[in-house]
Amino acid sequence: MGTPSATGGHPAPLPDRSAGAGYIQHAPGYVHNDGPKLITGRFVHEDSFTLERSVATGGYEGLRAALEMTPAAVHDEVRSATLLGRGGAGFPAGVKWGFLPPGKHPYYLVVNGDESEPGTYKDRLLMERDPHQLIEGCLIACYALGLQQCFLYVRGEMAVAQERIAAALNEAYEAGYVGRGICGTDFSVDIVMAWGAGAYIVGEETALIESLEGRRGMPRLKPPYFPAAVGLYGQPTIVNNVETLSNLPWLMVNGADAYKGHGSESSPGTRMFAVSGHLRRPGVYEVEHGVTTFRELIYGDNFCQGIRDGHELKMFIPGGGSAPWFFPEHLDLPLEARPVGAAGSMLGSGAIVIMDDTTDAVKAAWRVVKFFARESCGKCTPCREGTTWLEQILRRILDGEGRPSDIDLLLDIGDNISPGPYPAAAHNGQEAVPFPPRQTTICPLGPSAVAPVVSTIRRFRHEYESKITRRDPIPIEVAVAGAGR
Amino acid sequence: MTLSPANEALAAEIISWFPRPRSALIPLLHLAQEQDGYLTDDAMRRVGELVGATPAEVKGTAGFYEMFRFEPVGTYLVNVCTNISCLLWGGEELLEHACESLEVEVGGTTDDGMFTVEEAECIAACTEAPCLQVNYRYRGRVTPADFDGLVEDLRAGRTGIAGHGVLAQVRQSVPAERLAGVFPPEQAREAPVWLARNEAEAVG
User: How large is the ipTM?
Assistant: First the structure.
């Protein structure tokens, strides 16, 4: 406290957006701009979260369409739409579903609503503003895969989302959309809301399953890599992100071909991006996947309208706190997994954080690392110790206690958590997330803490050096030799 | 205190929705925290009995999750975000202002027991930086003056925000006749009827 912040004081007030075009008072943060709206279409209605509004605007039509088809045909439709998972790894949902071993019932569906990646918030809006769309998505998945039980796990801190989902489930049960004999058919599913209690790591799918089993939310040892093999109660389990499932109603009503009419060939559809930081119009936008570039998103009139007045872009985080950072030369990359991966980062959870020229790179990196140090579950030593070391060394550099060897020490610790060239993705081809991951830990939390450190040291080493005022301590052998003379 | 009769009934209902009782542990701990404002040893012991966990397992699990408290906190838990997006818009200064104006350290509670101020990690309102939560209810783009106004409103009971421990004010509630049926996995080995029917039709 009392030290200058990254912005050097309290910011000038943001422009008043209450009168701005498309700004919706009831969903602060969401900006309803021009462009196709596959999953946020209902957000313009104040009562978008009610069953009445949902049904009046096509709600549960996707479910009805699915019920007309065979489960296998629904699965094929999702597979052919190449619906990519929206949680962070970008794995195709239809392929993930295909990992369920035949005949090993019961299967479970777990909805990952534990959104807590720094900079990310789209799932919260989807849960608060359109819970029926999510429920409908769950039902379509359950029908396709032969699941009778779905758990909707909401982050503990999201009280309003919990309220809206509970109310929506109550309405849906009463109206016959959930529970026994859905829409008068023999399709029956129970959807139960569960909720967390404050732990970022629970967003990792095996940790989420542990938490849902009533235990400490620590990731499970891998392999098996996918809970589709061994998941909840040891049974085959599909864990899908809120936004992924929210795409299914539109997909079933309009079909895979229409879905592929949006976005690019390898990344069809739309995606929600939360764009925050030093912008004129920060917001959560539904964007065509794969065709829009970072530049359009940050500077376009239809989107964030540029960096705040009088400043320029210094750096940005392209995919949530875990992603390696990008700089102005990356602005023309499209919002698509492969090119972003090849350039050395990832789109991750759709969270873009923009930092202008007033931002202290070391301070900003420290802040992200501090998050991972706090949230490390402690299961793997390289992460538990390494993230804490990284945080403490960055802190001492900021406090003017840093030593010249600290920069190499930071890189060395990073190498112990994520060995080899960093980020590994850029060195092994085109994939956004290297698989199997190059890490000495079970889950990617530890390597995530390396991202801001390596990114900022590579680019802004001089900022680190300018903060380092002390000398390295005299090595012990030199000190001892000196004492002996 | 242990669980009230009304909460015992709620607890039984919540347990009935899960294939294994232990899965209800976290929801039941929230129920206990809602009742008392924090987790008492008695309540944790009772929750353990209900879900088949020892007191040590209950406390060991609860201790992993930041929202569970073993000591009373203020009526209003104020979580000020200082993570990256909020840092860029003055989250640290807001936290500093909160502590100074309420005369507490980070993590401390005011003498009257009204407010506890904590530093929060990203609470998913990044475009509304700097943001905070009061008992997990959002306020965005908070200036120091806004903060002072909020404190005044909270003291006067003008916000409608319930005391610490209360999360969702609507509960899921499923009429027994609408429930498809929840069974432990070993009693649900058959393929669901609609899947079996479709597979049979495909073969036929």
Answer: 0.96
